[in-house]
């Protein structure tokens, strides 16, 4: 009989750490189009500034309340932002890749070339995505997909976090990488 897999957050963190390559194997590519990827430790000042801004924004009364209300405010805020260029960043020392929403099958194939086997979409279904949606695009290129619709400037529900932990853990256990994205790759 198989032992149940520990799906706690510390256990997931341990599973996300890639295993050392076997003798004679090359380590997985950690480059983006031949360039060194940005460090997984993001610059402290911009990160702290972003966290402070997010805390201030989400403390406003308009960002409290039911998810449908948060969604309305997220749509309004989105209409004032320009859509960023597509990008992704492998997190050093893990099997996670984070970034912006893919808008074309070719972008998903590029992720596959970097070893990604599954995608977690934090966007809501109405947000700009690949034609037919990210789920359909993942199906076309052969990637597993999990949709966790989360309003911009909000965090996922505890239920969705648990689903993500289980989904990511299953793919990492099989030796894959998981791409987690929202719209711009900076929130949610």
TrEMBL record:
Biased composition (Polar residues): 22-36
Segments passing through the bilayer: none
One Pfam family this sequence matches: Tc-R-P
Residues in Tyrosine specific protein phosphatases domain copies: 159-188
Chain intervals for the UniProt region annotation (Disordered): 1-40
Ranges of Low complexity composition bias in the record: 9-21
Database matches in PANTHER family: PHOSPHATIDYLINOSITOL PHOSPHATASE, TYR_PHOSPHATASE_2 DOMAIN-CONTAINING PROTEIN
Record protein name field: Tyrosine specific protein phosphatases domain-containing protein
Taxonomic lineage from the root: Eukaryota, Haptista, Haptophyta, Prymnesiophyceae, Isochrysidales
């Amino acid at each position: 009989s198989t032992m149940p897999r520990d799906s706690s957050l510390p256990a997931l963190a341990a599973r996300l750490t890639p295993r050392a390559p076997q003798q004679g194997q090359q380590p997985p590519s950690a480059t983006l189009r031949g360039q060194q990827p940005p460090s997984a430790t993001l610059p402290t000042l911009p990160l702290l500034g972003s966290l402070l801004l997010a805390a201030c924004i989400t403390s406003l009364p308009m960002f409290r309340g039911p998810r449908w209300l948060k969604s309305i405010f997220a749509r309004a805020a989105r209409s004032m932002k320009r859509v960023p260029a597509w990008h992704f960043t492998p997190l050093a020392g893990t099997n996670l890749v984070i970034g912006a929403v893919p808008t074309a099958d070719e972008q998903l194939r590029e992720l596959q070339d970097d070893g990604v086997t599954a995608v977690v979409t934090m966007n809501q279904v109405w947000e700009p995505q690949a034609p037919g949606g990210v789920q359909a695009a993942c199906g076309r290129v052969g990637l597993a997909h999990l949709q966790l619709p989360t309003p911009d400037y909000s965090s996922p529900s505890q239920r969705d976090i648990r689903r993500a932990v289980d989904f990511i853990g299953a793919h990492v256990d099989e030796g894959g990488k998981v791409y987690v994205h929202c719209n711009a790759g900076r929130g949610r």
